[in-house]
């Protein structure tokens, strides 16, 4: 490589080839790189001009994480941080009534815009197979029913920052996330989960049935500090007839009632016809109830039979005195 090829530039040798930067003459830069690539034996390069030869390692760009927005190519293929693979994503949009109820069948859906379902069923129903939902910085809202309903033993992985809002309907079937029938919902990212109005008669997250699982892994917010519940059977998170909730991060807010303990942050639904088994495991995050003066709601209202509540050393419950247990059988951890 003669001196005129190298004047004022650098040659970089990488695992994927050789290139030069910055040479004023692009033609000479290309020629210099080609000569380096053609070398098959040890070679001495002599030049009268000052230049620098650097051997550098190729570094692959970082893959998007669970809180990053979704980047897609022209074929709607993009990285799934939970699956650790490139997959084909299907857009949910409020202009497409045909996808109001989703049978995921191991599919991957994302919000291309804020999505409001105005039908009479659930905004998203996971009833046909495992799948993923990427909120992509947007909001999923249900006008009636549940925003996300999972059942029949299937799993839904939720990722991407955004919001999930349940309807204002006054029953547990109108929760923002409703999980039953041995299904699993895993919230991996920073998601705000709430109801359409601050005053609500329905839980925000409802878990029912044996082998049913909800995992809150991201910096999840359930409810809000100004939440007011209107009946004694309501709570931000309600468990009924079994199931497990694992909370690793985030904040769950209880109610702020000043006339009777009507709304806990976490509670087991109490009824003569219900089996109040289940487990709530809190390894991190915060539960906060009663942020107003005179409030008598509970942080955790423990069930009556075979209930397990485990609070790890990195978890915070405020106020700690607002944990009530009413044990009529079984044991508590």
What key attributes describe this structure?
single chain, 333 residues, mainly beta, nine-stranded parallel sheet, eight-stranded parallel sheet, 2 helices, disordered N terminus
Secondary structure layout plus pairing:
Blueprint (H helix, E strand, L loop, with lengths): L2 H4 L3 E5 L2 E5 L4 H12 L14 E4 L21 E4 L4 E4 L1 E3 L14 E5 L3 E3 L6 E3 L4 E4 L4 E4 L5 E3 L4 E5 L2 E5 L10 E3 L4 E4 L3 E5 L3 E2 L4 E4 L4 E4 L4 E2 L5 E2 L4 E7 L3 E4 L3 E3 L9 E6 L9 E5 L2 E4 L11 E2 L5 E5 L3 E4 L4 E2 L9
Parallel strand pairs: 1-3, 6-7, 7-10, 8-11, 9-12, 10-13, 11-14, 12-15, 13-16, 14-17, 15-19, 16-20, 17-21, 18-22, 19-23, 20-24, 21-25, 23-26, 24-27, 25-28, 26-29, 27-30, 28-31, 29-32
Antiparallel strand pairs: 1-2, 4-5
